[in-house]
């Protein structure tokens, strides 16, 4: 969560520098972030965030084809990367929550089994 907040905070700072930066590197980072989010099952646990990331990445790639819209391409690629990272973190969080629920159920089952054994 802190990582995401920091990325968003840096967005404003980086947009000011975007006019001199090529968006290609940021697009590559966004593509990697989207792939990582896919691998983390974000499509199952955070599908809307992943869709937003892909849409912004597509727009960034289109804008990068025109030198006049490089600042826009950079901004969109940065937003796509942040959205993909958010989707990945939501997926990890949901998976951890599922594992915790499974452990709670196991513990309850073991407690019940222990109580039955003690009554015999």
Walk me through this protein's architecture.
The relative contact order is 0.16. With 120 residues, this protein is an all-alpha fold. It has one domain. The protein contains five helices and no strands. It is rod-shaped and about 80 Å long. Helix 1 (2-17) packs antiparallel against helix 5 (70-119).
Q: Into which percent range does the helicity of residues fall?
A: over 70%
What's the count of strands? 0
Number of domains in the coordinates? Answer: 1
Radius of gyration: 21 Å
Q: Which shape, going by the Cα principal axes?
A: rod-shaped
Largest sheet: none
Class computed from helices, strands and strand pairing: mainly alpha
Mean pLDDT: 87
Q: What ranges have pLDDT less than 50 throughout 5 or more consecutive residues?
A: none
Number of helices: 5
Order of helices and strands: HHHHH
């Amino acid at each position: 969560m802190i990582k995401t907040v920091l990325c968003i905070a840096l967005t404003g700072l980086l947009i000011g520098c975007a006019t001199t930066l090529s968006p290609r590197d940021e697009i590559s980072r966004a593509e990697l972030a989207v792939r990582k989010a896919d691998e983390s099952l974000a499509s199952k646990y955070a599908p809307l965030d992943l869709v937003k990331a892909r849409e912004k990445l597509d727009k960034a790639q289109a804008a990068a084809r025109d030198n006049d819209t490089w600042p826009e391409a950079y901004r969109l690629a940065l937003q796509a990367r942040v959205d993909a990272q958010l989707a990945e973190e939501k997926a990890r969080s949901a998976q951890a929550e599922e594992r915790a629920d499974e452990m709670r159920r196991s513990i309850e089952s073991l407690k019940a089994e222990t109580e039955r054994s003690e009554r015999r």
